[in-house]
Amino acid sequence: MGKEPLTKDRKEKTQPYYHLGAVTETERVLNKRLLDKITDPKTAAKLIENGMTVATSGFTPSGYPKEIPLALASRIKNDCEFSINLFTGASVGKELDSSLTKKNSISRRFPYQTNKEIRDKINQRRIHYEDIHLSQFTQEVRYGYFGNIDVAIIEAVKITPEGYIIPTTSVGATPTFCHLADNIIVEINTTKPLFLEGIHDIYLPNDPPDREPIPIMTPKDKIGTPYIKIDPNKIKAIVFSDKQDENIPFAPANQVSQDIAYHLISFLKKEVLQGRLPENLLPIQSGVGEVANAILKGLLDSPFKNLTLYSEVIQDSVLDLLDHRTIDFASSTSLTLSKEGFNKLYNNINKYKDQIVLRSQEISNHPEIIRRLGSIAINTAIEADIFGNVNSTNIMGTQMVNGIGGSGDFARNSSLSIFTTPSIAKDGHISTIVPMVSHVDHTEHDVKVIVTEQGLADLRGLSPIEKAESIIENCAHPSFKPQLRKYLTNGTKQVGHTPHILENALDWHINFLKSGSMKD
Amino acid sequence: MGKEPLTKDRKEKTQPYYHLGAVTETERVLNKRLLDKITDPKTAAKLIENGMTVATSGFTPSGYPKEIPLALASRIKNDCEFSINLFTGASVGKELDSSLTKKNSISRRFPYQTNKEIRDKINQRRIHYEDIHLSQFTQEVRYGYFGNIDVAIIEAVKITPEGYIIPTTSVGATPTFCHLADNIIVEINTTKPLFLEGIHDIYLPNDPPDREPIPIMTPKDKIGTPYIKIDPNKIKAIVFSDKQDENIPFAPANQVSQDIAYHLISFLKKEVLQGRLPENLLPIQSGVGEVANAILKGLLDSPFKNLTLYSEVIQDSVLDLLDHRTIDFASSTSLTLSKEGFNKLYNNINKYKDQIVLRSQEISNHPEIIRRLGSIAINTAIEADIFGNVNSTNIMGTQMVNGIGGSGDFARNSSLSIFTTPSIAKDGHISTIVPMVSHVDHTEHDVKVIVTEQGLADLRGLSPIEKAESIIENCAHPSFKPQLRKYLTNGTKQVGHTPHILENALDWHINFLKSGSMKD
């Protein structure tokens, strides 16, 4: 596989079209030796050959490369003539996942995605997808579990005089990819301001047996460097991009989400009253989306103050919480903001830089830190069963939605792991509370609280039969309660700690697949 | 609830029968003020009242109290007149679990058991049992998730001049129970030698938000004290016991176990050759039982040297490994030895004290340490499914066997999580490799390798369909392979990342329950 420097044949004396002029270049590429590596996306993409493993920046579509993957995709003429293994931090935008999927050019894709085109191909089993805990993924890449990384494509704000990389709006798995890749292509995004420098905290742990404690004691502790240290000789190409990240549309809170938030916040207040949580709680992890937004919005209207966030994403509502000092500090691996959110961030960057840090996903989601901080993990379920198991990835046990992401990292090491879901879906034809989930991502051992718009089930210290009673009575939708009670009553006619009737355990899903409804 | 000192009515001038003479007493109870608390089991047991929560020492039946629970049980005349919540470290012996279960006197029992009588009652749902990760249990007790602890009963080697406790052959959850309990009863076991002092390393972490890194960098690091620091005023009674722990019968390795061990050790050798593991591997965790014994025996005959163990139990074979320097050091929370094993330990205690440390289960099983060390976790499955999910607790999805124990603590934070199981059970009527497990304790995300006597499936980096092919071809018993292939082939006629046919997913279990065989 050709590894010769990409730019060696570039002989032009005059600057070709892709140069942006001396000012931009010299303020973005501060290492003079690397100026020679600036090239166009098409040329840079030639570094990527058939059969390679390519790893990119990007987390929950933020900070992923765009020009190189688009150039690569446009190079591929025919189906099946070309394929790569594609590793990312987490989900990336359509310029990467869609463009390559449309050319059937992804063979293997780890560890998380949220893209329609790629999801369809995953469910057709035309792309091999392993759904991996985000904190584990990077260490497993380093352990060599997934082979060599040929090329890393990294979106950057700039390259320092030493040749180090300042990432953009996410860190994700980038430090590990840069550390391991044979070659690095840097995509400098000129829409991402230079003043982002300083918001990142890059720390690459040693691997066993030489690993040491990670010295984070509070979400605001910085333990690393503001840049990703690399061997500058590995940078084989630099391109400029002015493409913006795919924006996640802002999800306004509906009544169901607000009710979920109400039950959850009431519960947290009670925990404080009973002395089980400090007044400013413990560091919160919360996902993205409607319910997460409603919860964060709910916190804004609550009496809680001086909270902290130790999470993997920062969405718009976090900025509001920081403004109101409901939250003092937010640690994350990604800024997943709307266009308005980014404008707000950039217009007040000096303030927010004191309140926000972006870490690698290995650290933002690290079991050691989550356990130490005693995190409160709030994640969404696709469905939960009456015994407290949660499915968060596979609809009807078979159809991959996105992946487990960081939910397992947080749920299994937190002090309090909470799952939220509306009690029904598909116009009431699906109950998200079922006798047996069709796929398990979070076991009964890792689920402490389930919340729907109907209410909240506190499962701590309960046996399976007590969990079932609590979940049915507190969380299930009234239209499905009789059916759930009947299942449980039938089960309890037999001996068994977890009184399932295996013949009927998956009937609800089977009925839905046949008739379009889980109703009897 | 009466909390007055138990011994205040003891007026005798002459020593009653339960005193063991000045020598034994003064070498075992070094705090002079506590000598007055020495009493008989019956009197001490009066501290335990109906409705209380009682927490005891003991882990994988080692170091649990015997005299007090027997005295308590003999006091209970009628069914249902008396019941307590019983918390332990892990499994305890029949003197505790059986004697109280026979009197229907346990209302709630956390977090693990291996006792026939109690298991039966759990499956009849007459005892509320929550199956909790062992490392999480103690912190959740401290967080107040399970209410107040009225009395702790702790087996000890001795009480120090300061009134602190030297535990016996396990540490388990004892430090936390002592820290929290209103009252403590100490059961000094005179069959456990005084020279055990010094083998324990007691460290009680702060709770969030004040938690700090746990400074263990290698299995041999000692970070605490050799005693459990308590307020001596909480000791309300001291009794003497010469009862031995219930012995676990030694499980000799049969051919199936040896074959599993062979595949596993071959795999580890290959990992070293390929540079994915150091020559002396990474700290090993291994359970108890036939397969675990065979694996440890296999290591003895292997070229591996200078290994370490960071585990929750030490069984007989570990002593042999230490003798041969196959293993340099073993960290655990419990000595689960046969009578011969204990004799060997005691006869060479000075040597073994340099090679063994006993920690609390919170530390032996701590996510932070397991992740830092990069542990190799080897645990047993009841059944595994073709997509890599593991059931380790509930037979046919309903009947509790023991519990998850520490397997989740290790599997989900290790660098390499391996599950072993013979490929068939019940004279070949049960396949332990099934289309869908009937209960999930370890998800596909946490299972990297499955080993049976047939072979080994390395699941790292595989998509569900690839995992299924690998597990069927490498791990399933030949008599079940055609049936498994048929299930998978039918599944792949449909779209779906995890190609289950829900109508048939649990048929194998249903068939077994109906006909006594999983065969078509």
Describe it.
Two copies of one chain form a homodimer. Chain A has 520 residues and is α/β, with parallel strands linked by helices. Chain A folds into two domains: 217 residues, Glutaconate Coenzyme A-transferase (3-Layer(aba) Sandwich); 261 residues, Glutaconate Coenzyme A-transferase, CATH 3.40.1080. Chain A has 19 helices and 24 strands. In chain A, strands 1, 2, 3, 4, 5, 6, 7 and 9 form an eight-stranded mixed β-sheet that branches. In chain A, β1, α3 and β2 form a beta-alpha-beta unit. The radius of gyration of chain A is 24 Å and the shape is globular. The N terminus of chain A is likely disordered. Chains A, B: GO terms for molecular function: acetate CoA-transferase activity; acetyl-CoA hydrolase activity.
Please give a handful of descriptors for the protein shown.
alpha/beta; 520 residues; 30% helix; 8-stranded mixed sheet; Glutaconate Coenzyme A-transferase; globular; 5-stranded mixed sheet; homodimer; 2 domains
